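Run log // design_07
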C-alpha cells in the first residue's frame, strides 16, 4: 500500500484517484490512522436517501409533482423546447 500525508495527497490527487480506480491500494494518513482511497459502488435506488436523507416515498411524490408541473407549463405554452444547437436557439 502506498501511504501519503494529506499534503502529498492534495498535490497528487488526480494521479492517486486514477491509480486507486485501477485497483492500487492508496492510504492517506489522518492522525494515527490510515484512510483507504478506493472506488465504491453507488446504487441509484438508495442514493437520494444516503446523500440527502430523502425517503423513497418523498422522492416519488417529488417526481410526480414535477411531472405535473411540467405538463401544466407545456399545456400553457410556457416551456421552450431547445434543439441542442444553442446558436440556432438563440437566433430564433
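design_07 sequence
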Amino acid at each position: 500500500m502506498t501511504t501519503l500525508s494529506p499534503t502529498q495527497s492534495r498535490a497528487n490527487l488526480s494521479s492517486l484517484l486514477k491509480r486507486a480506480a485501477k485497483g492500487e491500494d492508496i492510504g492517506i494518513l489522518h492522525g494515527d490512522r490510515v484512510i483507504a482511497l478506493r472506488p465504491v459502488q453507488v446504487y441509484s435506488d438508495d442514493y437520494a436517501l444516503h446523500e440527502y436523507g430523502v425517503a423513497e416515498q418523498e422522492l416519488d411524490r417529488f417526481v410526480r409533482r414535477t411531472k405535473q408541473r411540467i405538463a401544466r407549463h407545456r399545456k400553457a405554452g410556457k416551456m421552450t423546447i431547445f434543439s441542442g444547437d444553442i446558436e440556432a436557439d438563440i437566433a430564433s
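The helical segments are 6-11, 13-21, 47-52, 56-75, 86-91.
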